[in-house]
Specification:
114 residues; 5 helices; globular
Length: 114
């Protein structure tokens, strides 16, 4: 199976972190592992990307660490504001025009580079 390039890894990690923060803002709880696996598979499928299970597991572990760090960011708390983090015209793709999405992406890039 084809390995993800660095940018694709950062985009998937960003998606997973936003998903974690979205769930935490709505319920006060983090996503379970099975939800993160399903989210990563959904993202990979909709993005036309592929990676093996080990790489997915690493990114899921990284998203847990990064989500805790990202709690300091000004993340929306209201349902209407949370939904605006996504470009729903294209499906559940992140809207990279939103500053908080850009900040989480930058954190993802930095984490993957370390």
């Amino acid at each position: 199976m084809k390995k993800l390039d660095d940018e694709t890894k950062a985009e998937l990690l960003t998606f997973l972190v936003v998903g974690q923060l979205f769930a935490f803002a709505r319920t006060g709880e983090w996503l379970r592992t099975d939800h993160l696996i399903e989210s990563s598979q959904m993202w990979l499928s909709s993005s036309g990307a592929q990676c093996d299970w080990m790489e997915r597991a690493r990114l899921i572990a990284a998203c847990r660490v990064l989500a805790v760090k990202a709690l300091d960011l000004p993340f929306p708390q209201l349902e209407a504001d949370l939904v605006q983090l996504f470009n729903l015209n294209r499906g559940w793709f992140l809207d990279y025009r939103k500053p908080v999405v850009q900040e989480i992406h930058a954190l993802s890039v930095a984490l993957l580079a370390s």
